Amino acid sequence: MTLRKFFFVLPMLLLAACDTTVRRDELASVDYGPKPARWREEIRSYLDIRLSSPKDAVVEFRSEPRQLFQRETLLRERQYGWAICVWVNDKNRQGAYDGFYPMTVFIRDEKIVAVNNGPDDSGVVGSRYAREQCELLGARRG
Question: Can you give the residue range of the structural domain that contains 27?
Answer without folding.
Answer: 22-136
